[in-house]
Every structure is written in C-alpha cells, then in structure tokens.
Write a structure and sequence with these properties.
This protein has about 475 residues and is of the alpha/beta class. Helices cover about 30% and strands about 20% of the residues. The strands form five sheets. The protein has a six-stranded parallel beta sheet, sandwiched between helices. Strands 15-16-17-19-18 form a five-stranded mixed beta barrel. It has a three-stranded parallel beta sheet with strand order 7-10-11, sandwiched between helices. α9 links the parallel β10 and β11. It is globular. The relative contact order is 0.08. Iron/sulfur cluster binds next to α7.
Length: about 475
C-alpha cells in the first residue's frame, strides 16, 4: 500500500465537490492521502468545470503550471477530470503531453483500476465513456465521508432540459436518479459520522425519480426528514418549471427542511426565456415565488441570472432588472453569457458586445447589493438559529472591518442560518475543547450587525440548549 500523496484541485459547482470527495474515498484504499502541497503530490487531480469559458480557461491555466513539476518528478501522475475532461477528451493529451489521464464525469468509479494501470504500465489513459443510467457502483456509499458538519449528497446526475446556453447535458449526460434506499443509506452513514446537515444535489431535483418511476422529490425529502440525528436538509437546484405544489408544501410540513430555495430565473424577459428554452414565462415564475412566500413568508429565495444572452435587447435587460426589483432576492449569482462548444446558443445571431455585457452585469450586481444589504439589515436585533460549522476562516478577529475589536481573547466562529446566511460570532475563551462543543450545534445567536455578505452576532443560548431542528 505505502503512503502516497494526492492533491485535488476542485473547480466549479457542488457536484464537483461531491465528486472530489468520492475520488478521495475511492483512492484511499490504494494508499493515497490528501495533501494541500502540490510539490509533495504523487498524484494530482484537477476536477474541472466547463459551465463558462472563464472556468475552462482557469482549468487550463492551472494545468499549464504543472508542466515543470512533472519535469522535476517524472513519476508524478497528472489526471484531469470533470466537465472539461468530458468535453475535450483525447484532445487534452495532445495539447498537454505531461497529462497522464483524462477521465470524464462518469468514470470516477473506475479510477482505482485506472490509476493502478497507469502506475504499472506508465501508459496514458482517456476514459470518457458515458452511460444513460446511474449504476449503484457510481456512488461509494460504503466508504465513510470525512466528518464535516455539512455535506453534499448527489441524488441524481445529468440533465435532460437542454437550456440552449448550457453545456451540462453534454458533459454530465442524461438525467438519471439514484434509488431512494441508496440515498438514505448514504445519509444515515453521514449522520453516524457527525454530519448534521445534508444538501441534496441534482441539476434539477424537482424532476427526481420521475423517469425511473422511483418516487417524487417531495416524497424523498419526507424520507430524509425521518432520519434520526439529522438536523437540516437543503437541496439544489430547482428548475422553476418543475417546482410542484407538493414541494412547496414540504417547506411547511418538513421540520428539517431549511427555509431557502435557489430558483434560477436566468432572465426576466419572456422573449429571452423562450430562446433559452427555459419553458416558463416571467408571470409563471413570479406566481411560484408569490405562492412560496404565501406558504412561508420567511423563505429565502436566491437565483441565477445570465446577462447578455444573444439577442438580449436593452428592453429585455430592463425586464430582468425589473424582475429583480419585484422579487427582491436574498442573494443572486449573475453571469455574463459565454458561448460554449456545441450548445445551440453558440450559433445564435446578435451576440452582445463584451463591454455591454460587463455593464449589464454591473447593473445587476449593484441593484442586488442594495437588496442583500436591506435583507441582512432587517435581521439586526433578531435571534437566528445558527448551525455552527467551525471556527471562522479569517481567524480569531472580526471578519470584516467596522466591528470594535475590544473583546479580549475571543474565538471567532462561523455558521449559517436556515435561510443560508453566514453568521460570525465570538465566544470568550480558548479554542481547546470548546471547538468540539460548539461545532455541529445549532445555537441561538442575536444578530448585532449586518455586513455586505454576512452577519455578526453573539450567542444567547449555551450549547446545552442547542436547538436540534432545521431553522
Ligand atoms: N454562460 C453564462 N452563464 C451560464 N450558466 C450556465 N451556462 C452559462 C453560459 N453559457 C449559468 C446559469 C446557471 C449557472 C449554474 O450558470 O445561470 O444557472
Ligand atoms: Fe443546464 Fe438548464 Fe440543465 Fe440547468 S436545467 S443544468 S441550466 S440545461
């Protein structure tokens, strides 16, 4: 077995984060342990993202930096996985002679054998085969995850929606759902390892199980809700066209389901939505938002927006701004449209100039900043239940300027509200022991101050009074 070092660079979405976890777990039996130091790695894996041109450039620029490493250490194995690998396949080998392995999004379970083959034969391998359904071997539920407090669980893969700008159906394949029993087994295993919150992942969770006749997504949620010891459930992503009454009702009936939904709208213009093949209208979207808020007024709603889609006129864009004003999202991810290989929109006429796209992006971000600030400000003076996921990344001091740092020896903690807002708070005393006592607990925190993308507060409940449930 020996002890070998694995360096993984994970780019892109949560699906890749989950996949990288799988890779780590699958390679552990081969003697690989993870390192964060490139120089000491025996195997480097780059898990890439192809959603926008920028993401792809980032992957190639990182890979470019690996050439000198390989020169110094010829036995080093360099593998490129994820969506760019799936998209480019064999071409990567000719473009980058120092890459040993290109593996696609559905080749992860074969990695241990592939790595063994490369080690033994010093050959180069391309494995980008795709299947139409998930096989139980695609997910290693039996190998325990590391004990994080919040974990992702992939419940389905691929996408059948073919939005005209999107590369996902081509690089992740057809939509295919995992059976509920498998998902429940995986989550029970996670909970046994200390996980308190799971985020169920899929490109369109709302259509979970439909093709296979498994069960509806809201029914799966109800089953997950029944798992003892689990505190919170989240899910992402929901396609607005498939957001059902039953799923909306689940926000009220399931106590562990967090009051947050990510509901990407992409555009506020019907003409653009049609050309994007989103299959809902602005009014249908707004109606669903209204219904969600009627059912659960405290629900947080976030969204994705694409600016500068081919043919997006100034008035189309104004409709998007107007929709953002109407919905007042809790948070927004805005992207500049970028052509992707082989997707229909790449061939659409009336491409928008880069400068114009950038201006539109700035306008969206500036508008949203105001709403984010207002929403955060509205929480000042309220008590929020925060699931603590550990010490704050920025160390023992206040995460953003503007807070008086006069509390003496403090530890700075971080966690999230049910509505997915990041909360920092301090606790007096040293880290030892307290870490274990606070991490994984849901604490009542009085919010004192709103910052641009997070909140700052102080504990008003002790860990012993920790609240077990979702919100
Ligand atoms: N250009 C820009 N943004 C894109 N997205 C997907 N494809 C593209 C593209 N070609 C955005 C969408 C999606 C998010 C994950 O990425 O907003 O919801
Ligand atoms: Fe891409 Fe549309 Fe599928 Fe989302 S629903 S992954 S945007 S094709």
């Amino acid at each position: 077995m020996g002890s070998k070092k694995l360096f993984i660079n994970t780019m892109g979405c949560q699906m890749n984060v989950y996949d990288s976890g799988q890779i780590q777990r699958l390679l552990a039996p081969l003697g690989f342990s993870v390192t964060d130091r490139l120089e000491e790695a025996d195997l480097i894996i780059v898990n890439t993202c192809a959603i926008r041109a920028k993401a792809e450039q980032k992957a190639f620029s990182f890979l470019g930096r690996l050439a000198p490493l390989k020169e110094r250490k010829p036995e080093l194995i360099i593998g490129i996985g994820g969506c760019v690998a799936q998209q480019e396949g064999r071409q990567i080998l000719s473009r980058m002679p120092y890459v040993d392995l290109v593996f696609g999004t559905q080749a992860i379970r074969r990695l241990p054998q592939t790595i063994q083959r490369i080690t033994a034969k010093r050959c180069r391998v391309v494995d980008v085969e795709m299947e139409t359904t998930v096989s139980p071997d695609d997910f290693s539920t039996d190998i325990p995850h590391m004990s994080e407090i919040c974990e992702y669980v992939t419940i389905m893969r691929g996408c059948d929606n073919y939005c005209t700008y999107c590369v996902v159906p081509y690089v992740r394949g057809r939509e295919s759902s995992r059976p509920p029993e498998e998902i429940l087994t995986e989550i029970r295993g996670l909970v046994a390892n200390g996980v308190r919150e799971v985020t169920l992942l899929g490109q369109n969770v709302n259509s979970y199980g439909q093709k296979e006749g498994l069960c509806r997504f809201d029914q799966l949620l109800a089953m997950v809700n029944g798992i003892d010891g689990l505190g919170r459930i989240r899910f992402t992503t929901s396609h607005p066209k498939d957001l059902s009454q039953e799923l909306m009702a689940a926000f009220n009936s399931l106590d562990k389901l967090c009051p947050h939904i990510h509901l990407p709208v992409q555009s506020g213009s019907d003409a653009v939505l049609k050309r994007m093949n989103r299959r809902y209208t602005r009014d249908q979207y707004l109606e669903k938002v209204e219904r969600l808020r009627r059912l659960l007024p405290s629900i947080a709603i976030t969204s994705d927006i694409i600016v500068g889609f081919p043919g997006e006129t100034e008035s189309d864009f104004q409709l998007t701004l107007d929709l953002i004003r109407q919905v007042q999202y809790d948070g927004l991810f805005a992207f500049i449209y970028s052509d992707r290989p082989n997707v229909p929109a790449a061939h659409f006429d009336h491409k928008i100039a880069e400068a114009e796209k950038k201006e539109r992006l700035q306008a969206v971000l500036a508008l949203q900043d105001g709403f984010t600030a207002q929403k955060n400000q509205a929480l000042v003076g309220t008590v929020q239940k925060v699931l603590v996921d550990g010490l704050g990344k920025t160390g023992p001091h206040h995460p953003e300027e503007g807070m008086p740092d006069d509390r003496g020896a403090v530890d700075h903690w971080a966690g999230r509200t049910g509505t997915n807002k990041i909360v920092h708070f301090a606790s007096a005393g040293s880290t030892g022991g307290l870490n274990e006592r606070l991490t994984g607990h849901t604490l009542a925190i009085m919010i004192e101050k709103a910052m641009s993308h997070s909140l700052w507060g102080h504990i008003i409940s002790s860990p012993a009074e920790s609240v077990a449930k979702g919100e």
